[in-house]
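Severity: low
Component: inverse-folding endpoint
Summary: output formatting inconsistent between runs
Steps to reproduce: submit the following structure tokens with default settings.
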């Protein structure tokens, strides 16, 4: 595909292979999200490169995303810094982003405007993220881990129209890492993309093993359901 470069950076275009990725980069980026953004919005921000070495200090993943999109050029801003300052700049570029935080209400308003006018393509957000943010914004208090505040009338219809719902699974910190590692292992083994799909498949598989007479048994209020245990 042909990548659209913003006119403001066209004069900064250089051969994409003339700049070198930072081998020591400790950060991993989401290339799929970057490529979706570039495809939708074009490329409008130059990468930062140390002039003496041609090493990319800021924009390594954007460079890789452009390569995967078939681009042969990239806008570059060269800086004259020594190696120590180059490392400092590269780390600061990542860390200052990590330390930023969001005003969820302001973020939701922006996403809501896009949802009303068009869609969320190219933003890095999807409908699932939108719904989770909606739940957080509308919750005035959390009791026992369950958000209990009512959804305002002016957003109730919008909430009901969403075709995604979320389940929060709280874990003690002592087992959280084990659970996430097991989920990642199963996703790879079963070739499943998301935890939601994984849980759905596991539930379907488990429920298929429940005896018919148990699955069809009427519910009794206050009674604890127990699964039969093999001897």
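Observed output (run 2 of 3):
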């Amino acid at each position: 595909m042909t990548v659209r470069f913003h006119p403001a950076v066209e004069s900064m275009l250089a051969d994409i292979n003339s700049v070198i990725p930072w081998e020591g980069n400790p950060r991993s980026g989401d290339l799929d999200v970057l490529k979706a953004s570039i495809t939708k919005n074009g490329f409008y921000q130059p990468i930062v490169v140390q002039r003496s070495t041609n090493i990319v200090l800021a924009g390594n993943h954007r460079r890789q995303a452009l390569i995967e999109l078939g681009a042969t050029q990239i806008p570059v801003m060269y800086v004259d810094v020594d190696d120590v300052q180059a490392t400092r700049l590269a780390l600061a570029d990542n860390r200052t982003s990590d330390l930023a935080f969001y005003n969820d209400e302001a973020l939701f308003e922006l996403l809501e405007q896009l949802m009303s006018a068009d869609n969320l393509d190219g933003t890095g957000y999807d409908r699932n993220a939108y719904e989770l943010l909606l739940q957080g914004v509308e919750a005035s208090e959390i009791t026992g881990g369950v958000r209990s505040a009512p959804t305002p009338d002016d957003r109730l219809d919008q909430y009901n129209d969403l075709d995604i719902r979320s389940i929060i699974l709280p874990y003690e910190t002592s087992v959280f890492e084990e659970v996430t590692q097991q989920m990642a292992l199963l996703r790879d083994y079963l070739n499943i993309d998301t935890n939601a799909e994984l849980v759905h498949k596991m539930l379907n598989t488990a429920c298929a093993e429940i005896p018919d007479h148990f699955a069809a048994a009427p519910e009794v209020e206050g009674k604890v359901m127990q699964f039969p245990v093999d001897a």
